[in-house]
Specification:
Length: about 270
């Protein structure tokens, strides 16, 4: 940190306005900003530098333990420090982690512009109708673990920069490039234009994912638990399943995605 931490004693201090009523504003939106929470997530935010960090808000008793993390941020980034009762009043609930940062959203990326320059053996994850924040966060974590080059989402999937999705992703949502591209037909068309072989993962898939080999540019499609991928979308591409016990037909979508990504993973 270049500048000394700034003490906040008034929850209504205008300098920390972006942190107020976190849960309510998670749902309503906060004007091109997002909240990152926890030391591990802030490490990614500050080191990956895919998004600019506007400021940090730290519980006073946690400050000494995050000096190394804060050193990764730009030197002139304001660091606000508050006591527990003040921080809780700002957030609107008890903040036990006590380490927050306010990030600035990038301009919305165009799917074609994102995937066009990817390498010839690129791996992309396409999400359709996945509105659960935990699942989206876990899928981004899996995408980072198995070196997916990007994630594409349809408009009905949850925002990867929702605070809980970032937290569950362990910061991967701040690192793995992503774009939103309308509906499933728009996603398919964008991937098809750029030469991606597209594989739909479904319990009713024709081939066992263990037999699917990665050839050239590959996109793995994941759909919402329950309804799954739209039949019209699956009709356009190869389908694959994860073989399992005859007495059980499906896995959590993030778990299934992790297994499939591991099968398609190619170490670089």
């Amino acid at each position: 940190m270049k500048n000394a931490p700034i003490r906040i004693d008034d929850p209504d201090d205008p300098r920390i306005a972006g942190y107020r009523a976190i849960r309510e504003r998670d749902l309503a939106g906060r004007v091109r900003r997002f909240v990152a929470e926890g030391k591990v997530v802030l490490n990614v935010l500050f080191s990956a530098r895919r998004f600019e960090a506007e400021s940090a808000l730290v519980l006073d008793r946690k400050l000494a333990g995050v000096t190394g993390t804060l050193a990764l941020a730009r030197p002139d980034m304001p660091v606000y420090v508050a006591a527990q009762e003040v921080m809780d009043a700002i957030a609107g609930f008890h903040i036990h982690r006590g380490v927050l940062a306010l990030g600035l959203r990038r301009e919305d990326e165009d799917a074609d512009a994102l995937i066009a320059p990817l390498p010839d053996d690129a791996l992309v994850v396409a999400l359709c109708g996945i509105a659960n924040h935990d699942n989206v966060g876990a899928i981004f974590r899996n995408a980072a673990a198995f070196e997916a080059d990007a994630v594409l989402l349809d408009a009905t999937s949850c925002d990867p920069l929702y605070r809980k999705a970032i937290r569950v992703s362990v910061g991967a949502a701040l690192k793995v490039p992503f774009a939103v591209a309308g509906n499933d037909a728009a996603l398919f068309a964008a991937l098809d234009r750029h030469g991606f072989r597209q594989i739909a993962l479904s319990p009713a898939g024709e081939d066992d994912i263990a037999t699917v080999t990665r050839e050239g540019r590959t996109a793995l499609w994941l759909g919402a638990e329950g309804p799954g991928l739209p039949p019209a979308a699956m009709a356009r591409m190869r389908t694959a399943r994860i073989d399992m016990s005859a007495g059980f037909d499906s896995l959590n979508v993030a778990t299934a995605g992790a297994i499939a990504l591991h099968r398609l993973w190619r170490r670089r």
